[in-house]
């Protein structure tokens, strides 16, 4: 089983704030007056560019699958069951914007397969109220978009062990084939349930605090479709070690079935 230190969840101080029952967003470690120019090779996202992005209070990201259900990573949550401890923040690329609205969780569904063997690193969080004027991110139900160039985004660290960011940043990374990724990660990689993406020379990647956020492709019309969930990797943006993402197309049927159950429960 993969070591938890490889995962890309938020730093301990953010998780600690959640454990203490914090109801407001922990202060960003980056108190600059404007967006930075680099988060592991990223650039600032425009306001409204990724309207389905959600920041979670344990220091992870997520995407709006429905107006009340957030798709994130299983390693970001504490199993399946009633859970009112998570706050979702939505409405701006700037976590300190007055447009940010807070939504409380009421139930979490974690992938049963993840609990059994660590694969299928995805989870759903049902919110206690619908997100106003929600824009949704559809998930890939086939593997048609599992190769090519992908967009990644998040409020995570700019480097290994770095601070979380106030502003949402984005980057583009190419897919990495299974054989190349297996050369890097060996038996830690499960090609049937995971996708890899990154530059051979490194320098652009997701990092700690980006866990649970989406990796997207563009369909023939240019519309976004979620192909991955930020999961793990050896360090951040290291040469020869691409980021590893939950392969959404492999888990799509289970994700949608669980979402249907949560909607009617």
From TrEMBL:
Start and end residues of each Peptidase S1 domain: 39-265
Q: In Gene Ontology terms, what is one molecular function of this protein?
A: serine-type endopeptidase activity
Check the record and name the Pfam families matching this protein: Trypsin (PF00089)
Q: Which residues cross the membrane?
A: none
- Give the signal peptide, or none: 1-29
> Which GO BP annotation is one of this protein's?
proteolysis
Keywords recorded for this protein, A-Z: Disulfide bond, Hydrolase, Protease, Serine protease, Signal
This one is known as Trypsin
Which organism is the protein's source? Stackebrandtia albiflava
Task: Give the organism's phylogenetic lineage.
Answer: Bacteria, Bacillati, Actinomycetota, Actinomycetes, Glycomycetales
């Amino acid at each position: 089983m993969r070591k938890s230190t490889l995962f890309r969840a938020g730093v301990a101080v953010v998780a600690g704030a959640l454990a203490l029952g914090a109801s407001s967003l922990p202060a960003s470690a980056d108190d600059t007056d404007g967006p930075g120019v680099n988060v592991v090779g990223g650039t600032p996202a425009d306001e409204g560019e990724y309207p389905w992005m959600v920041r979670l209070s344990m220091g992870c990201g997520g995407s709006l699958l429905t107006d009340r259900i957030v798709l994130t990573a299983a390693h970001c949550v504490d199993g399946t069951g009633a859970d009112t401890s998570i706050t979702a923040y939505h409405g701006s690329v700037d976590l300190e914007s007055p447009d940010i609205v807070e939504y409380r969780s009421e139930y979490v569904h974690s992938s049963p397969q993840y609990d059994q063997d660590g694969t299928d690193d995805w989870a759903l969080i049902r919110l206690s109220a619908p997100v106003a004027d929600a824009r949704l991110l559809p998930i890939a139900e086939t593997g048609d978009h599992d190769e090519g160039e992908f967009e990644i985004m998040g409020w995570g660290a700019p480097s290994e062990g770095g601070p979380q960011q106030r502003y949402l940043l984005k980057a583009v990374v190419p897919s990495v084939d299974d054989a190349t990724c297996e050369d890097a990660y060996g038996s830690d990689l499960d090609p049937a349930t995971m996708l890899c993406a990154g530059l051979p020379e490194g320098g652009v990647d997701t990092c700690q605090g980006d866990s649970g956020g989406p990796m997207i492709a563009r369909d023939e019309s240019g519309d976004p479709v979620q192909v991955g969930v930020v999961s793990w990797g050896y360090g951040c943006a290291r040469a020869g070690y691409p980021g590893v993402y939950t392969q959404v197309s492999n888990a799509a049927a289970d994700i949608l079935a669980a979402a249907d159950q949560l909607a009617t429960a």
